[in-house]
Amino acid sequence: MSDITTAATSPLEQIQLRAAVEPEFRSALMSDPRTTLRKSGIEVPEQISIRIEESAADEFVLALPPAIDPEAELDEDALAGASGGFTPAFLYVGVVVAGTLGAVWSLPDGRKKSV
């Protein structure tokens, strides 16, 4: 792992930065994202699909989570998840962010890096 990835604060940031600077890691993430994410410390449940989006240097990809009906009532499982820990929606957002690869990151020296 390079010095730039160790400066990232979250596992998702580390994955995105590694994919930006390590061609072999990026290739593994593109060809087998579930295994590559698992090896990087992020377990994605089998029922959740993973889609990796590669952006160009001149574009910004923003992945949106599923729309939530503000009037919907929570079922028992959702209420249990609301008391703490990870919920499926939180995990989904995290996975989408991990697959976005289109963000602009600030490097430790203050420069901007498009990934």
Brief characterization of the structure:
This protein is mainly alpha-helical. It has helices spanning 3-6, 11-21, 23-31, 33-39, 76-82, 88-100, and strands spanning 104-106, 112-114.
Strands ordered across the widest β-sheet: 1-2
Shape, per Cα inertia axes: extended
Q: How does the major sheet shape up?
A: 2 strands, antiparallel
Number of helices: 6
Number of strands: 2
Mean pLDDT: 74
Report how far apart the termini are.
17 Å
The domain count comes to: 1
Q: What are the low-pLDDT stretches, counting only 5+ consecutive residues below 50?
A: 89-93, 95-106
Describe what this molecule looks like in 3D.
Helices cover 44% and strands 5% of the residues. The radius of gyration is 16 Å and the shape is extended. Residues 89-93 and 95-106 have low confidence and may be disordered. It is mainly alpha-helical and 115 residues long. The protein has a two-stranded antiparallel ribbon with strand order 1-2. The protein has one domain (3-108). The chain has 6 helices and 2 strands. A hairpin with a 5-residue loop joins β1 (104-106) and β2 (112-114).
Please give a handful of descriptors for the protein shown.
115 residues, mainly alpha, extended
Question: How is this fold's topology laid out?
Answer:
Layout: H1 3-6, H2 11-21, H3 23-31, H4 33-39, H5 76-82, H6 88-100, E1 104-106, E2 112-114
Antiparallel strand pairs: 1-2
Helix pairs in contact: 2-3, 2-6, 3-4
